[in-house]
Design a protein that fits this description.
single chain; globular; 154 residues; 20% helix; alpha+beta; two-stranded antiparallel ribbon
């Protein structure tokens, strides 16, 4: 009987710690992957059909970005075909995109011809990151909306 109580206590503590981690905004930090600009450059696709292609000059093109939930935050989701990208400068309290920053766990995607800026977060590990464009990194993305690097980068 004593063993069951300890197992129940251990399970309760584990569940509580997991809930606290997610609810306090720590999940994104724990699972974040830091990537370099070289790792960002090239193609990224999702199982749902969204694709982003990042260029060394800090521009990108996208297809089907309007199907992602985060696109609803933009005034014209159908106009999200291209823009510029940059990691955020490590400044507080205001974070700003800075093309001179060469590594990070988050990208600012600023779409051309609109006032729309979306943050994309990197998760998994540095060797095999996934990208999640979302307004809340603790919520993550739907499983088919995570973008992975295309194997044959241009």
């Amino acid at each position: 009987m004593g063993g069951q109580v300890w197992r129940l206590a251990a399970v309760t503590v584990t569940v509580a710690a997991t809930a606290l981690t997610a609810s306090c905004g720590y999940a994104a930090a724990i699972y974040a992957a830091e990537v370099s600009a070289d790792q960002v450059e090239g193609g990224w696709t999702s199982k749902a059909g969204t694709s982003l292609t990042f260029h060394a000059d800090h521009t990108f093109t996208s297809e089907h970005f309007d199907t992602l939930p985060v696109a609803s935050e933009c005034s014209d989701p159908t106009a999200l075909a291209s823009g510029s990208w940059a990691f955020y400068a490590p400044t507080e309290p205001i974070r700003t995109p800075d093309e001179t920053v060469t590594r990070g766990t988050e990208l600012a995607l600023t779409f051309s011809g609109s006032d729309c800026e979306v943050t994309a977060y990197f998760f998994n590990d540095e060797a095999d990151p996934v990208m999640c464009p979302t307004d809340d990194p603790d919520d993550g993305c739907r499983s088919d909306d995570y973008l992975k690097r295309v194997a044959d980068r241009p």
